[in-house]
Amino acid sequence: MNFGIRARRTLRFVNTRLKEWRMIAWGLASADHPVLAHVIPIRRCNLSCTYCNEYDEVSQPVPLEEMLRRVDRLAELGVSIITQSGGEPLLHPELDQIIARVRSHGVLAGMITNGYLLTRERIERLNRAGLEHLQISVDNVMPDETSKKSLKVLDQKLVLLSQYAEFQVNINSVLGSGIRFPEDALKVAHRALELGLTSTIGVLHDGGGQLKPLNDKEQGIFEEVMTLGKRSYSRFNRFQHNIARGQANQWRCRSGARYLYICEDGLVHWCSQQRGYPGTPLLQYTLQDFRREYNTEKPCAPHCTVSCSQQVAMLDNWRAPQTLRPNPAGQTQTLVQLTGAGASEHD
Question: How many Cα atoms within 13 Å fall on the side-chain side of residue 322?
Answer without folding.
Answer: 27
